[in-house]
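Reading a protein record of the kind used here takes only a little practice. The integers have meaning only within a learned vocabulary of local backbone shapes. With that in mind, consider the following protein and its fold in token form:
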Amino acid sequence: MTGSQPVILGEMPSLAKLYVNAAATAARRRVLGTHTGTALPECSHEVRGVKAEVTNLTAYQHLVGETASDVLPAGFLHALAFPLAMSVMNRDDFPLPLPGMIHLGNSVLQYAPLRFTEALDLRARVEKLRGHRAGTAFDVVAEVRAAGQDALRWRGVSTYLSKGVFLPGIDKPTAPTVPAAFSAPDPTALWQLGVDTGRAYAAVSGDFNPIHLSVLTAKALGLRRSVAHGMYLASRALADVGAVKGDSFSWDVAFEAPVFLPAHVALDISTVQDNDGGWRRSDYVAWNARSGRKHFSGSVAAL
């Protein structure tokens, strides 16, 4: 799949239009009983010469707690490429319904810094369709390069679950994975997230998924309250790791339980040093400060 010719788009897609189209496509398939097979589209979508908006970058940095800088944060690059990833999942030959999709985790490789003054080439594709005990999972791969250059500067793999959708011919695991027992450590940070957290992140990321915006829109999609964006939470944890991570690092996050808004979230960051006493890795875990339920965990490590 990586060798297929990309579909070159003239501009970044509109997330609002993509969400509307995804809802309409899912409804049409339910009514007509149609499906598009059991294979992912073997192509990528690409937009060239994209530049970040300074005002949007500044608002993002302020919201997630990143230091003001001309370097684009790794989480900001995810948000920048997200509409392109959504456009691939909106293709007619994409076999899964987008509404109700669950974000399971992310794995990012930041090879070198990118600055807001640089024009960027963005590319996204989907791969690794596989069974899951609760449905069907797959990966979205997004890549960022400086415009006209071959060297990969940023790569993100997002894993999603289409819950309750079992495609024919795709085996699911026979035994569920039992999560390890979680005992909350002493937190290094406490976040107070207001009911407007989802709307605030949507304003800087463009991700206006209704489950994040209000109680009413979340209830319309079967949730009791709105939930925080997973990438907002992960990006805030990355910001809390701080500048010690340097310019080249890996960043992983696995989501376990949604953060219903408003919320009090506790975070613990532990640092692993190398033999010379320098930073090697920071592990983080977040949980509900009142119930003790684990929300997500991950790590940031030097490359």
